[in-house]
User: Fold these one by one.
Assistant:
Number 1:
Amino acid sequence: MLRFFTRSARFVALAVTSATVITSTAVADWTDSVFPIKSHSFGTVAVASKTEFAFPIYNTTGRDMHIQTVRASCGCTTPILSTNYIPAGAQGTLLARFNTPTFRGKKGATLTVVIDQPFYSEVHLKVDGYIRSDMVFHPGAVEIGTINQGESEIGTTKLYYAGRSDWQVIDMRANQSWLVPTFKQIERGATNATYELSVQVREDAPEGFFQDEVIVQTNDRSMPRVPLRVSGTVVTALNISPQSIALGTVKQEQQIIQRLVITGREPFAIDSIECEGWSVEFANNGAEKKIHVISVKMSPSSATGSQRVPLVIKTAGENAVTAKAILTAEVQREQIAVNN
């Protein structure tokens, strides 16, 4: 009888252990699909820089999900949940804001996400970074605001440094071709320097909200690269495709045919298409529709040399709007033969 109970106890213990392993594995698989990113490093950042990262949350459970609470292990990071309720198949975000104005040095935090529906689980997300005490961005990011597509806009901030006498900014680089960063030193002392950092959003920036960063490169050997956040929204009543028209090398008065797709929110008619220094022709029947697919004949009239000019499309009617695409080309000058 004793042997029977001993074997039964072992069987029950084994079954409980197996069930625990299966449950743990299922939970792990579930949280991995809901939280595909569970860690992020901010790297080296400046004091007062606007430093944030949005952890995506995908509700793949097939049921509505409710996040009960989110807590941070360190005051260096503030968690901001986009919504507590995420319907089945929908997406939310958990924004981790690094508190660079009030903390210094190497910092990190664990964000514990407590989910109580449709299943209970706790998910741990980790962030870390190093906040430099010798550099300050003011303001903490370049926020461009809202701009019209086809137009250029410049945003600026200042970088204040205190420390080495030979410290300097040597370069700035962007991840996007349509973001053009520049810098200039505006003040220097024995142990301090001030730079003005500018970021231009070019005319060929795509429509919609953007949030990116440029890298400020310094001559600091230990921590040479510092990110600076850039954000804004590009809006347009018309969408032109392609937005950038690259014609390559063109001879004087050579005719080029370019196909354009012009899309509007509401039906519209095209009034004109113009480009300074270029002759532009297209078949215009005055029809109003949301999508126009047209072939435009272009040839350089007075344009010569390197060209980067806007192709301006204007709609007809009282509420006319304009949109711009960017035309680039190298127009060869006409050669004149000389008889000897």
Number 2:
Amino acid sequence: MEEVARLLRPPNAPPLPHLHKPNGGGGAHSRDWLHQSLPTGDLPAFREAPAFRNGRGCAAAPTIHVAMTLDATYLRGSLAGVLSILKHTSCPENVTFHFVAVSPFHDLGRTVAAAFPSLPFRIYRFDDALVRGKISSSVRRALDQPLNYARIYLADLLPRAVRRVIYFDSDLVVVDDVARLWGIELGPYVLGAPEYCHANFTAYFTDRFWSDPDFPHALDGRARRPCYFNTGVMVMDLEKWRAGGYTRRLEGWMEVQKKVARIYELGSLPPFLLVFAGEVKGVEHRWNQHGLGGDNVEGLCRDLHPGPVSLLHWSGKGKPWLRLDAGRPCQLDGLWEPYDLLLRRRDQSPFAVDV
């Protein structure tokens, strides 16, 4: 567990060199770290994060585009993810965030702006009617929410000037410079993500899928053997996506699931596997230490996978903020806690739901 010890920096550890805290000298961003953000509606209050400034050599650094979703249930996780990205990158002012939300659209935007006053970001309204008739029930209710499918529509939602984006789920923290992930070469591929070829690929589809005379042949002719990859961390070439009509390809499998036969059980993941598995640019596993939330049913504690860590991902049912609030945290939940911006806890927390 040496990697855990390395990542568990004490709360009073010295900040990174590029960290800048306003000192109260006036101006819109001169507020104390513990300044209380104004609550918006039923959303909880969050502390204002420190301002992060570029280090040396950032003048020629590229703009990095990061996409995430926003909703009341996962807002706490999203803000923790943003803070982790800014804290660990050498050029934080070069990171632009693209948030996709359904509602409360304006309250969510005000909450982000209050917690990160100098953050460059845009919020895009996701019309859940796009997927309302295409979603079928899965093994966990959270996987059935329309916003879970928003990643399919990023190429349509984001401006065409955004040619590449990193998609991050809202239950992760980044503990490395995100520029390293941004800089991977995709080559001919549309997506880059860590692949896990030791996983049982057949388990992600039902017996009905594998017994069909035609469905399995959709995986034929791939550049490499189809392998599982987690869609919570993806580098996406939006130009290739748009040119290849990949949104429609994914929707096609969702329609098969809804109208023809039940061929999978795990929300938006299986359509991605059907369209992209075997055609993904492999990324180092350090960029998605996933599964820290346990499985999709019980959400039991899990350890890190062997190897270095650049990103910790609480995929699965168990979320670190819920376990911390309940006083029953897993050991690795302590790695998420330093990024939690929640100012106070309420008796009726909007996060205390079945996810």
Number 3:
Amino acid sequence: MSKQTYRVCFCFQRRFKLAASEAPAEIRELFNRYSENGVMSVDHLRRFLIEYQKEEKATLEDAQAIMDGLSELMHLNVFHRRGLHLEAFFKYLFGDRNPPLSPSLGVHHDMTAPLSHYFMYTGHNSYLTGNQLSSDCSDVPIIKALHSGVRVIELDIWPNSTKDDVDVLHGRTLTTPVELIKCLRSVKEHAFAVSEYPVVVTLEDHLTPDLQAKVAEMITQTFGDMLFSPGSECLKEFPSPESLKKRIIISTKPPKEYLKGKEIKGKESDAQEGKDPSDEVAWGKEVPDLRASMDGPDKDDLDDEEDSEDDEDPTLQQTAAPEYKQLIAIHAGKGKGGLTDWLRVDPDKVRRLSLSEPQLEKAVITHGKDIVRFTQRNLLRVYPKGIRFNSSNYNPLMGWMHGAQMVAFNMQGYGRSLC
């Protein structure tokens, strides 16, 4: 029992006794199993850690450290010089010193299932140092994210100002660029600083074929044998995280249509419709065509890494950089049609689909079961809506509940950094 003092009616004080919460019957039974004469000794606590909590590497020193950390409970008359009483044990179980998953456990799940069976700690615009509109681009946030356990890094790649090299930046914004090669070297150096499991690099590609060939050379020379590259064909099933240890995986939309081709088509279309390309709102060109599957484009959805593959041009495919396509291990893209087609499961190949936060919210209402069915074999990436300019984040539970393996977070959010 403890006492608390309260001021009543702003003029006098009263003291009230607070009854401590009692341990339920299950905890009493557990305590009795690992104690003697109402006291849990260091030896008893170590046996509890090993047998019940499965901390097989627990030592007497670990058990003693726990007891030493609970010494502040002595004033409650629940701490005995020879060990713990029931109430101290109860407070330990539900306190900060007993986290849900002990860091000493390490990896204790089966990691031999396909990659689609696991949730992956995923970053969004991993190169940004701050907000989504005007912050600097750097490899520093990438390094910080990898040291925090992030396994999916996103890089938006664009031609540099002279069109002879490749930069990483948030396109059509005021963000300052960073060289792609610098980001790739940082990924190589820090990818496995805290985990041996694979790192996926998702590329938002805005390059011409000649620059795609240059990126392929950069990636090949930088990562070497670390690169998992099964060829240009889609995988029939994803490998397991266990088989991909210390490997780096490239994921992007296979090159079927290119920036120059899109610009030509865009100009022709604008000329036919009497539109001025300058009338396009910033980021508007990155908005996917959702008209076939939803009521209309969401005004909040201003940032999309994957365009529809409806307007495929065979003449542009002939200029493709084959070495670039062969590096793509996880093929991405929405494909033709609307949401029903996007979520169609192909028994002969697996792929990655990306949906924005608003797209997912709409999709779960009309296609919830299809999403769950899709994520059983394929990968689903969900990213924050474009108007989160301050790099804030959304509630990830909706994505996780429907099997989305890559729920992408802004790591650099003001005051809410996840790193």
Number 4:
Amino acid sequence: MNGSSGSQGHNVNGGQKKVQHASPLTLNNGSKHRPLTPMRRCRGVACVVIILSTAFTLIVFIAPITTFLVRLVSVHYSRKATSVLFGMWLSLWPFLFEKINKTNVVFSGESVLPKKRVLLFANHRTEVDWMYLWDLALRKGYLGYIKYILKSSLMKLPVFSWAFHIFEFIPVERKWEIDEAIIQNKLSAFKDPRDSLWLAVFPEGTDYTEKKCIKSQEYASEHGLPILKNVLLPKTKGFLCCLQELKSSLDAVYDVTIAYKHRLPDFLDIIYGTDPSEVHIHIRTVKLCDIPTSEDEVTDWMIERFRQKDQLLSDFFMQGHFPDEGTEGDVSTLECLANFIAIVSSTGFFLYLSLFSSVWFKVYVLLSCAYLTFVTYFSIQPPQLICSSEGGTHAKKVL
């Protein structure tokens, strides 16, 4: 799951610098923090079964109501209901990370206040970075409102594609001539300031590997750009497009840097709980007035931000931590357990209705699956048929 797409968009300043290839320390690829025992395998399989079964059941029973029936009356309340209800399911993931896997999630940098409409950009160390942003959103009360720009191929995954669609994630082709219109069209529907929105962008466009780092360094050397060891050169077209579409209604922009101890995890690592031992998330607030508006200036500005990220990560690998740790507390174990029980109980109730109750529940499940498949395949969002007074007032303000 990647962030902004598009061409490199870097300024060429001439001159060459010696390429410094990434070192093993930079890659942070040691041995697994915990061994993969049979017990961990069984626990991982159980977690996958619970997460998939609850996701499927809740989507099938609830999504047609919140994303179709409610949306016909109010897009705003449709999004709110969807985000609140399915945000409860998303919180199963931080519960898995922090309480079951015992991963220590350490926040540092600035202590940010909860903001309703946020654009955040982050480095992309590994394929699961985007999942740990849920830990931040959960602490700020906006877990169900976080959205990503993702590869369109992910929209072909069973069940998950339904979730991506109802959450209104933005699928892209990684071809800027196509993606620009897609991003603009999707974000144009999110200009209502009443709608909470946390949009996450990964300007590198892909996750970090040694091979990609060497290629990025060679490009930087040829074009007189900073030689970065721990991040890739950022692409700026996608970020700039998001900024231009949302700037008038944004409450904050967050610059997020992510690092891991002692090994870069993949999806199976977090399912089995073998890695990571620690996730470090450093946050800095960016003032909107400090972000340039032209593409060339944004390119230079973003490259400088990633040069700073590269230095932050170099210091992290030397010192073992980011500066100004302890900006966020732990999530409540009691609240996590209560939410888990509520989700599992609801799933059990819906499964009972489907299997042992009236035949009409079986018909509802079949119709719901057909509806979700149809709207996801054709990327359809039902329109609001009833104009509310609040919507009309907002429209007048915009005009």
